[in-house]
Design a protein that fits this description.
By secondary structure, this protein is mainly alpha-helical. Helices cover about 70% and strands about 5% of the residues. The protein has ten helices and two strands; from the N terminus they run αββααααααααα. Strands 1-2 form a two-stranded antiparallel ribbon. Helix 2 packs antiparallel against helix 3.
Length: about 190
């Protein structure tokens, strides 16, 4: 790949470090999109042996690029995102792909199509990981950063996606237990 193309694409990717999510870190600051992406990739690596039938490299690529449009659009929390936001983000991704040569742009276009279709084991696992990672992050943040609807989301978000895999279902249940414990601790301190 042309060296200027590499630098131009990395310049856009850097925006993911700047753009924050609705989530907070355990230290109390807003989490960046890049931080979510990093930990999502680590998450995929940690569970790879549980899914020998899955191409974990493909899953990791999905984890790496899934929020790339947010370099342009910024993060819109799942509970606020609508179909127009999804169109805008897809357009942003398409705009970003024009920065890449044909082969690389085609690879990523195919990856995004697979994620959107949710038909492959890889796409299904990616979506489960993505949703569960967000719930884990909320559990790690101070509960004062939660908005009222997140008390329910902590118990429901990602459950449907986890159903496709017994291991992910078990993991999601454990995360829900952590959420309930956090909520109970907050009630005890009121």
């Amino acid at each position: 790949m042309d060296t200027r193309t590499v630098l131009n694409f990395l310049k856009v990717a850097e925006k993911l470090k700047c753009n924050t999510r609705h989530s907070y870190t355990s230290s109390g600051r807003p989490e960046s999109v890049a931080e979510h992406t990093f930990r999502l990739c680590v998450f995929a690596w940690l569970v790879k042996d549980e899914f020998p039938e899955v191409d974990i490299n493909r899953v990791t690529q999905m984890c790496l690029f899934h929020d790339f449009g947010e370099a342009v659009t910024g993060d819109i929390p799942v509970f606020e995102k609508n179909s127009m936001d999804e169109v805008t983000e897809a357009q942003a991704v398409e705009q970003l792909l024009t920065l890449l040569p044909g082969r690389e742009a085609g690879e990523l276009r195919e990856l995004f199509a697979e994620m959107d279709a949710r038909n492959t084991l890889e796409a299904k696992l990616f979506h489960a990981l993505d949703k569960i990672e967000a719930v884990i992050q909320h559990n790690e943040a101070d509960i004062s950063t939660w908005i009222p609807l997140e008390y329910d989301l902590q118990l429901t978000h990602g459950r449907k996606e986890a159903e496709a895999f017994p291991y992910m279902k078990e993991l999601r249940e454990l995360v829900a237990e952590d959420s309930l414990k956090k909520i109970e601790e907050e009630k005890a301190h009121q």
